[in-house]
Amino acid sequence: MLSLAAVLLLLLPVASVASSPFKEELKTCHPDCTKFGNCNGETGQCDCPFGLTGPSCQDRLFPACHVSKDPGTLPHYGTWYPKNCECIKQLRDWPGSCPDYLHYEGDMAPYLPPCFYDILLQQKLLCYSYKGRAPAEQLSDSPALDDPAVEWFRARARPAMDLQPLAPADRPKASECEHKTPDGGQWRPLSECPDRCNNRGWCQIQGGNYQGRHTDPNERWCNCHGYFEGKSCEVADPSHCYRNCSGVGECVGGWCHCKPGYWGHGCTRTKAYTSAVGWRPNHAKIKIYVYDMPTHVVHRREVNDQWSLIDLMYNSELEFTDKLLGDWGVRTENPWEAALFYVPTYTYWFTGNVGHPYFLIQHVTKWLQDNSPFFNLTGGRNHILWATNDRGVCKNQMAPPEMQHSIKMVHFGQAPPVPYAQRSSGAKPSMQAILDSLQAAQQGRFTGFGPFGPMDLVEEGEICIRPEKDVVAPNYLHNDWVKPESYDKVWLTTFQPDGTRVVKRKPDAAPRKTTLYFGGFTKPQMSYSQGVRQTIHKMFGPRGKYNPEGANARPDYFIAGPMGGGAIEGMKTAKFCLAPMGAGWGIRLAEAMVSGCVPVIVQDHVYQAHWDILPFDEFSIRIGRNELHQLVEILDDVTPQQLVELQAGVERYHRAFFWDAHWGGLAYNYTLSALKRRAISLWSANYRRHTRRLQHEREALEQY
Ligand SMILES: *[C@@H]1O[C@H](CO)[C@@H](O)[C@H](O)[C@H]1NC(C)=O
Ligand SMILES: *[C@@H]1O[C@H](CO)[C@@H](O)[C@H](O)[C@H]1NC(C)=O
Ligand SMILES: *[C@@H]1O[C@H](CO)[C@@H](O)[C@H](O)[C@H]1NC(C)=O
User: Which residues belong to the signal peptide in this entry (predicted)?
Assistant: First the structure.
């Protein structure tokens, strides 16, 4: 018996391994590549940090943006302190700065031209030039202010390069009116700072940064460029890069410089493959391949020379990517067997919270089309890109099909009930219909709501996701919500012998005396929160039905303006917590869940994070705007037993809404499940087809 079983066990795996069509095969690079770059064993190219290029990363894209001619220095291209005028010119002339294929097809053209570098959008930037030096010899090395070899200009890069010489009286002076940095400090020649800031920062008097302020007028200090630290910016701390560069690299300008043998995001790559059968995704175990796009396409940008410290609530792209990079249960280095393709882009670093990644998506899509053998096979339908900005990919509605097809990971899941594929009929989106209905909409659209204006309706009509293919993921919650000092006030965590975490409601937690909690900002425009915040403030305000001084007062409802950190405690003692939108996505669903408070979601047409993988009816209450005026009656109707059941649902699922895995967060796991469902949707041919789909795409799919 035993030997038969052993024979069977031996036979099965041998049979499948022997037939594997994939072979490990590493390419080699220029022998000097790894000095400043990483040898990419898949492409045989030397991967370089942004601004460096060539077979050994010693060629410079913008030589005049460097501080010195030493090899391996990085260019700096922000607007915080003056650069050499030639640096602005070189950035402007580089085709990757404002690529000519960027083109917006929507109705309302974006306000800014399609350029990725802020310095090109400035009107009167101070810059300097060394007299009589060839362009190749110009450097952004912060010369002495009275250096007689230096001339000063005001520069504008677009539409045409324009340099206005500064009269001697207007030049920055060493004495009275030195050049101010925007933090109130004074910019100084690099020579005055310790070790010239190791060519990784600039020299200042006073002002300050995220590490604190400098008040001593005699002190010269180094304000370090992105991701460098130390008195003279001598530290390239790997904790600012993905996966701490896996312990085998340095974080250089937000990019891992790895030891030989490693490459890629966080130095996580060591293997590359070829396939004898082309693309053959594994259907038994869905796997994800992660692209390492060249840094000249996308990189973790500095914003205006500085550390780009983002509001942590937009941090889920980094969290998810960092976890995926180390999750070899799903990740594969072999693209030929991957079902899904993940494209890390640092979107938020290009858009901020109010910008839109339209041009970034277009730029990345073009690169994928031109360079990846996998993108065209499905028209990009299995490629994954993030957009954590407030309104996600709402502006993509009119984008060309190749930009639309990819899976977008967003926080803002608005999908109004209007047909998506209007573009294919050549019709503009329902703008005219919106304007037609404006009259009707201004009054009495929903009981108790104020009038809506045209822009409010336009924004509400924007189609921001296609639910069958895009993924709505939870936002990142600031540590204050989930660190044990806070979390343990309402949750009791125990561990089973095998290490499994068990989280229950804490029996002796403070009683939940508030019936409904909402502390939040509002704005006059009804596009903000779809009018919900305005209406709730009105209902519970001085002239509202539940006026705290009136006959219907409900002191058990807490409705107020922004509470800052107070909300962390306030939600912990409430039964229900209102979860409206903000300018785009709302943060309060996640906040309510981790606080053990049953969310009351009022967001018409907006798919919530994890809508497709969690039973929202078990832990939340959903209310339409047309019912908001009856909120009190609806919540009064909830019986104590029903509340207990909803709270049990919050207990079961709240961990899906936060990311910090070391504190029990499961947002990564649930988001990954949602992504895997998209692979199944694709194989089920559930993705809506575009009628005007390009012929070559159809052919590619038929071949597959
Ligand atoms: C990276 O290192 C920092 C400390 O330097 C640590 O706090 C963090 O957990 C590390 N991250 C990973 C993914 O190892
Ligand atoms: C993918 O399709 C685009 C659009 O037709 C085309 O320009 C590109 O060359 C194709 N890419 C590859 C790798 O064949
Ligand atoms: C969540 O995902 C991580 C990474 O794959 C894994 O280590 C962990 O066990 C998962 N947790 C659960 C509860 O599935």
Answer: 1-19
